[in-house]
Amino acid sequence: MQFDDDAGLDTSEVQDVRGSRIPGGKATVGGGIAGILALVLGLFFGVGPDQLGLSSGDSGTTATASSVAQVEESCRTGQDANTKDDCRTVAVVNSVQDYWKQEFQQRDGTYTNAPTVLFTDRVGTACGSATSAVGPFYCPGDRKVYLDLGFFDELHTKFGASGGPFAQAYVVAHEYGHHVQDLMGTLSRAQDQQTGADSNSVKVELQADCYAGVWAHHATTTPDESTGRPLITSLTQADIREGLDAAASVGDDRIQEQYQGRVTPDSWTHGSAAQRQQWFTTGFKSGDMTDCNTFG
Questions:
Q1: Quick one: which H or E segment has residue 27?
Q2: What's residue 149's pLDDT?
């Protein structure tokens, strides 16, 4: 995956609170047993930590009070995105939101931007406080995506994904799939908190995978606002394989087999490895969000 070296990056879409502390330090989702539980329950690539009752305490985010100087200073152009992980995240957020803005306009709708918050260790959100153990997530309470960049290393070391730039892009695009669902009113279908291979929770997650694929289909043709040219200039089959590998590595069956030694579909929250790959591929091949009806 390559970015246009000359494109300007919009850092206003990313809030950098790395190194900040939550007032009071109240977070109930931690490492160790709680962290492993979060993995087994499939919190990775999910919506806010409140939906499984794993968060409490301070619910205020530190994002608005923190400096974004780090990304502002170092992430200026597509060339920066080609060499730095945090700048790549900025560029992917820009590309994903440029696409969904265009898509909503074509459907006579209005897309509302959602910032991505980069944090380390723990963060406060409108959905409650959470630690890095829950993985990347979208909080519908404040309409923000939360991401600890250290997750990308864990995706490789803990879950066996091959990694790579597009694996990271897939993670970001999946979370913005939840934002799209929130704007369209479909995210609420997962609020029953039921589990199982045919649950609404799984269908919501698979639809977000499909929406990530839809964005990938259009990634090299969506014009960037700063240049009028696509921000992403190259997306290869090898890149797509990275995304599919990442999707499979966090399938419920893979995680359960790794952490509990058996597969129990009745407790699935995100879908199997095969399902996650299937729905990403569906979106990528068609490029049409109407083909992402996982509830049909």
A1: none
A2: 86
pLDDT at site 268: 84
Q: Which residues contact 15 (CB under 8 A, 6 or more apart)?
A: 63, 64, 66, 68, 115, 116, 117, 118, 144
CA dihedral of residues 253, 257, 262, 268 (deg, nearest 10): -30
- 262 burial (CB, 10 Å; 0-12 / 13-18 / 19+) is exposed
Residues 6+ apart with CB under 8 A from 7: 77, 78, 91, 224, 226, 227, 229, 231
Q: Name residues whose C-beta falls within 8 Å of residue 109's C-beta, 6 or more positions apart in sequence.
A: 183
Diameter of the chain measured on Cα atoms: 51
pLDDT reported for residue 43: 43
**Residue-range domain boundaries for the chain:** 2-292
**CA nearest 116: which of 51, 59, 171?**
171
The DSSP symbol for 270 reads S
DSSP 170: H
Mark the ranges of the chain whose per-residue pLDDT is less than 50: 23-45, 47-48, 50-67
Question: Cα(275)–Cα(263) distance, rounded to whole angstroms?
Answer: 15
pLDDT of residue 153: 80
- pLDDT value for 219: 97
Q: What is the DSSP letter of 265?
A: G
Burial 200-238 (b: 16+ CB within 10 A, else e): bbbbbbbbbbbbbbbbbbbbeebebebeeebbbbebeee
